[in-house]
Specification:
two-stranded antiparallel ribbon; about 450 residues; single chain; alpha+beta; about 40% helix; seven-stranded mixed β-sheet
Length: about 450
């Protein structure tokens, strides 16, 4: 994506789009990182002359490098099953409550900490001299310089969110060598310049600086939430739904841990206090199972299906792995004594009702646990295009929903680069620019929220 930023101007243009297809090999599920890097080079070639480059991606996954800086195999995909039994081993050394109080991260089986414990006894890990999270790996190949960007590092479960530095005590007790990580860097820090070989391959003229951005895509997306003030909740929708609040300090209580909220770091000293929800992954996997039918037609049909007839727990790790999603949703409904969706449209309505219900629960719980009331919910990311989901979320939360921008992560990435060059002001100024330049849609809540509360209670009883 090519961003253009100036006084009253914020434009985004797609330069190149390429697939991201994980590959299942005999040893497990892996990222095709070489294919992704080739796509980045193609994108730089298509973009033409630029003043800066910034990279964001998903969190937790990493590449291991040997002493010569060469990659030791394709990075493991977070949906791989290698961490399935690791948590118990970790908690035997550092109890779950103690781990949360030190790192503020919710339990997810794919957190980097659990991946490291799972990999510790492998030959590949024994050869590793450096660990780079995914966006830092791409930046290293582009520049030859290594660093660990803080917002993404905060998803490793090895950062203390109070000090915003490594949790040395936790790492030491679990036998994790923090020397594997490159030095921490902050959004806006310089991350090198494009190597001569990259300039030659892309046709660009140097020097082209690479700027560290909020490299966890959710951190970039939250930076581009077009909010005014602090009384807002956000839902970053895509494959995942990340629903929560932006705070000045982490919430590290036992009640927060039990509610499975995470404290990830954001721009300018902020904390992203949120809950991970399975998100539109549920719908994406259903569409794949059905042979990719017309989504617009399915959504129109789903809008006519009776509301809240059947709902599932959209945060259930039973839905984490790929494959057989319509059948697994049907099994969950059958097992809980609810009507089994009898058509693709009914399954889609079940998915969207369930997501809206999970959004309501997350927004309510976040306000209660953080002691912060909100007046509006901002939906950013790809799900902002899904009008039915946005309407249902407004109805479920009983709050206005402002949908957009859909490309929030790319906009946040661009704005941090622009700020590093003095072209835009602080976080509030960045958000004002987004609000003034990007198309937004407002959905007012309709109906009685008590039916959503009843559905949530019904789900909790199962």
């Amino acid at each position: 994506m090519v961003g253009r930023v100036g006084p009253g101007t914020l434009e985004l243009t797609q330069a190149h789009r390429f697939p991201n297809r994980p590959v299942r090999v005999p040893e497990g599920l892996r990222w095709d990182v070489l294919g992704l890097y080739a796509g980045v080079l193609d994108g730089l070639r298509a973009a033409g002359a630029v003043d800066s480059v910034g990279i964001d991606s998903w969190a937790v996954d990493f590449g291991l490098l040997d002493a010569d800086g060469a990659l030791l195999g394709n990075p493991v995909h977070y949906r791989d099953g290698r961490t399935g039994t690791v948590a118990g081993k970790v908690w035997a050394t550092v109890p779950a409550g103690e781990l949360y109080a030190a790192t503020g991260l919710q339990y997810a089986p794919f957190n980097t900490l659990y991946q490291l414990v799972a990999a510790r006894d492998t030959r590949q890990f024994g050869q590793a001299e450096r660990l780079l999270l995914m966006p830092d790996l791409i930046a290293y190949w582009l520049t030859g310089e290594q660093g660990t960007e803080l917002t993404n590092a905060s998803t490793t479960q090895l950062i203390d969110p109070r000090t915003r530095t490594w949790a040395h005590g936790i790492a030491q007790r679990l036998g994790i060598d923090l020397g594997l990580f490159a030095p921490l860097r902050l959004p806006g820090d310089p991350a090198g310049v494009l190597r001569p070989g990259v300039l030659e391959e892309t046709g660009l003229s140097g020097p082209v600086p690479v700027t560290a951005v909020a490299s966890h895509d959710t951190a970039s997306a939250v930076a581009a939430v077009p909010a005014d003030g602090e009384r807002f909740a956000y839902i970053c929708t895509g494959t995942w739904s990340l629903a929560g609040l932006e705070l000045d300090a982490p919430v590290l209580t036992e009640e927060s841990r039990i509610a499975n909220f995470t404290n990830e770091l954001g721009l300018d000293g902020t904390v992203r206090y949120l809950r991970n929800i399975m998100g539109l992954w549920l719908l994406q996997e259903c569409l794949r199972a059905w042979g990719d039918p017309d989504l617009g037609a399915l959504l129109r049909e789903a809008a006519g299906v009776p509301a809240l007839r059947s709902v599932v727990d959209a945060g259930d790790t039973a839905f984490l792995a790929p494959g057989r999603m319509p059948e697994r949703i049907a099994e969950a409904c059958r097992g809980s004594g609810q009507p089994v969706p009898d058509s693709p449209a009914a399954t889609v309505r079940c998915v969207l009702d369930s997501l809206a219900l999970a959004h309501r629960a997350a927004v309510e719980d976040a306000q209660r646990l953080a002691g912060r009331a909100v007046d509006v919910v901002h939906v950013v990311g790809g799900g902002a295009h899904n009008a039915l989901l946005c309407r249902l979320t407004a109805d479920a939360c009983g709050l206005p929903v402002v949908a957009g921008p859909a490309e929030a992560a790319a906009l946040g990435n661009t704005l941090v680069q622009a700020r590093a060059q003095g072209r835009v002001g602080g976080l509030a100024g960045m958000r004002r620019l987004v609000a003034a330049t990007q198309p937004l849609t407002r959905y007012e809540p309709r109906g009685d929220t008590r039916r959503w509360a009843a559905a949530l209670a019904r789900l909790a009883e199962r």
